[in-house]
Amino acid sequence: MTTTVLAAGASTRAAAESAAKAGFDVVAIDAFGDLDQHPAVRSLVLPRDNGAPFMAQAAAEAVRGIAADAAVYLSPFENHLRAIEALTSGPSTSFRAGRELWGNPPDVLRRVRDPFLLAGTLGRRGFATPLTRVDVPPEFAAHKEWLVKPFRSGGGHGVKRWTPGASVPSGFYAQERIGGVPASIVFVAARGRAVPLGISRQLIGDAAFGASGYQYCGNVLASADDEVITERAVESLIALARDVTEQFGLVGLNGLDCIIRDEVPYAIEVNPRWCSSMELVERQYGVSMFGVHAAACADGVLPAFELARARQSRSVIGKAIVFASADLVAGDTRSWLGDETVRDIPKPGEQLTKGQPICTVFAEGPDSDACLSRLKGRARSLVNQFNTDS
């Protein structure tokens, strides 16, 4: 019998597609219901006001009556533990009561998403981390730059520079700003062990994609000859992934964000679920990302995968989310279907508010700089076309 998986998150297209290709029956609920969702996926859209944020609890309640063997959450569920509990309480297609959770349980999330506990744990074990505090004392204010971040973080939303003398508002914390290159490692974990699957540069606040500030807008998968993500940095990133897995008991697919400065990764936060860059790993290295997630969660089995060999690829691929610079109405986007350089396609006539994602673009190049340049060119072309059609 085929296993039915329920996937829930703000954007499910990539994860649901990976699951469908891995042979699972998939029901997905998200904020968009993209036109290019895999045809085998039963796609549901959470009703909401145009431009309103995706509500995890509402999504979990909306699928309460749908039968599924396993539930998988995506962003932003890691910040809403009761929504995860609701997601697993629905009916199963078997005689088992409730759905099996394929992912990190709430008790693990509560610990690994605590920025003070994460920084303290990794710092005591010799890893570099930024100073993380509930406030900024005067003796620290004069010599360091600081960021103010929400505890319920995601995609860089709500992150801003700290203004000297200002208090840190409720629901936020202060973190030392580390200058360097944003990067991330994604890995799969089970039974206290982790297998690294991919390392990438992160794209943050790039105006070429309509992003600003500290807003996440994409990744470029790093090859072995990357000038910033050197072998020394890679070794440290892999050690971080393995250590955070052991210390916090992670399971399934996870990601760890960091800033690399002078070949040293400073651990920023753990994303204990499917991450956007995982789609690049599946494209470039041929790894079934949902397949390894399911095996790790259901059976405690990890893949025999060698990242060092995979990173010898001669080309570099990347993806970037393109955001609307003004309120728009999608034209006839059906012509975009089948073009592998554009995904997460809005439906014809869909209303998009300023700041909302339009789509995701992909590009390939001989190195990171060339790949990023091609991503910007593809984004420019699509925005021009989008504005003309709408």
Descriptive report:
The chain is an alpha+beta fold and 390 residues long. The chain has helices at 13-21, 56-62, 81-87, 106-112, 115-124, 138-141, 231-248, 278-285, 289-299, 307-310, 368-389, and strands at residues 4-8, 25-30, 42-45, 70-73, 100-101, 132-133, 146-150, 160-161, 172-176, 181-190, 193-204, 216-221, 252-261, 264-271, 316-323, 328-329, 342-343, 351-352, 357-365. Strands 14-13-10-11-12-15-19-17 form an 8-stranded antiparallel sheet. A 5-stranded parallel sheet has the order 3-2-1-4-5, with helices on both faces. The longest helix is centred in the C-terminal third of the chain and has 22 residues, at 368-389. The termini are far apart. Strand 4, helix 3 and strand 5 (100-101) form a beta-alpha-beta unit. The protein contains 11 helices and 19 strands. Helix 2 (56-62) runs parallel beside helix 3. The mean pLDDT is 94.
Pick out the low-confidence regions.
none
The side-by-side strand order for the widest beta sheet comes to: 14-13-10-11-12-15-19-17
User: What overall form do the CA principal axes indicate?
Assistant: globular
Order of helices and strands: EHEEHEHEHHEHEEEEEEHEEHHHEEEEEH
Oligomer: single chain
- Largest sheet, strands/sense/barrel: 8 strands, antiparallel
Q: Would you tell me the overall average pLDDT?
A: 94
Roughly how many Å apart are the termini?
45 Å
Secondary structure class reads alpha+beta
Which band does the percent of strand residues land in? 25-35%
Task: Give the number of helices.
Answer: 11
**Number of beta-strand segments:** 19
